[in-house]
Amino acid sequence: MSVSAADAAARPPQVSSPVGGGRRQPVAVRRWRLGDVPAAWLLIIPVLILFAITVIYPLVETIRLSFFDIKGLGKPKFVGIGNYIKLFTDPAFRNTLWTTLVFTLGTTAITVSLGWFLAMLCSFAPRRTLPFRVMIFSAFGVSEAVSGYMWISMLRPDRAGLLNSVVGIFSPGFAHPWLGDPDTALWMIIVAASWSGVGLPLMLCFAAVQSIQRSVLEAAYMDGAKPLSIMRFIMVPLSMPGVRVAVFINLLGSLRAFDIIYVLTGGGPVRSTETVGYFMYRESMTQFKLGYGAAATVILLVAVLVISIPAIIQRTAGAR
């Protein structure tokens, strides 16, 4: 039977494979078809368009604005890296960098260590501690603005504030402006931010502990290991993946903190609680220095990338 040229062209190429005795048998190889492309692009193009509008364009525009001196409605003036030079020679911005570092490390250390410790304790009785875990995690769902207003009532400078009332039990007449004192304002914000952030590390670390094979724990019990020894030598090392994820998420969240600072102190007193995120808002929206604020935004972006890229590389290498 004769075969037409069109049928022969439509057939996939035959690749021979060795079979016993040195003989090679033809193996069909599926040819890439142009008809597969449109469906794939139709699925991904809407996502790419949305990503370009909401992420790529604002990012590029912010970087572009950081090279201009823009004051209010005045004509933009190209200054190159002048805004960046001015940032790092500005004492207020250097103080902001230090405040951001203290706030980021402080909130991350408190939330992750406390959530990790509670996860270890809850893992010994998962069912009985379920209501306890739900209550702690529910605080994570409270917005930072609402959390800030809750803490304002507790940190009032008079004796009507909850914290002053508690301290007043041991020291009658005690009253301290916790948010009005530069020496205590930042630490109170760290405590307030940590309160609502413990829930996520608790759940991540608890999930990591629950993924430990039961045979490992049962073998430790049979060998006579005490609960503290099991926690120290088995649970803690094997729960490190959850801890690393919790640290990564908390570092990013703390770097971008704005709402709770805006509600509690507005960057004061004397700009002692002003982070890079709030500095960006202050310079752009209240001082109308759009180029200067954009440069601060780029610095914040670089800080986020410095933290994100090593973590992404590590997770990608682990997946391979």
Description of the structure:
The chain is mostly helical. The chain has helices spanning 5-10, 37-65, 82-88, 91-122, 130-140, 144-154, 162-170, 185-195, 199-210, 214-222, 227-238, 240-255, 259-264, 276-286, 290-319, and strands spanning 14-18, 24-28, 68-69, 77-78. The strands form two sheets. Strands 1-2 form a two-stranded antiparallel sheet. A two-stranded antiparallel sheet has the order 3-4. A hairpin with a 5-residue loop joins strand 1 and strand 2.
Give the SSE layout:
Elements: H1 5-10, E1 14-18, E2 24-28, H2 37-65, E3 68-69, E4 77-78, H3 82-88, H4 91-122, H5 130-140, H6 144-154, H7 162-170, H8 185-195, H9 199-210, H10 214-222, H11 227-238, H12 240-255, H13 259-264, H14 276-286, H15 290-319
Antiparallel strand pairs: 1-2, 3-4
Note the main sheet: 2 strands, antiparallel
Indicate the proportion of strand residues: under 5%
Task: Give the tally of β-strands.
Answer: 4
- Overall spatial form: flat
Percent helix:
55-70%
Distinct helical segment count? 15
Q: What series of H and E elements makes up the topology? A: HEEHEEHHHHHHHHHHHHH
Mean pLDDT: 83
Structural class: mainly alpha
Radius of gyration: 29 Å
* Unreliable runs: none
Distance between the termini: 51 Å
Strand order of the largest sheet: 1-2
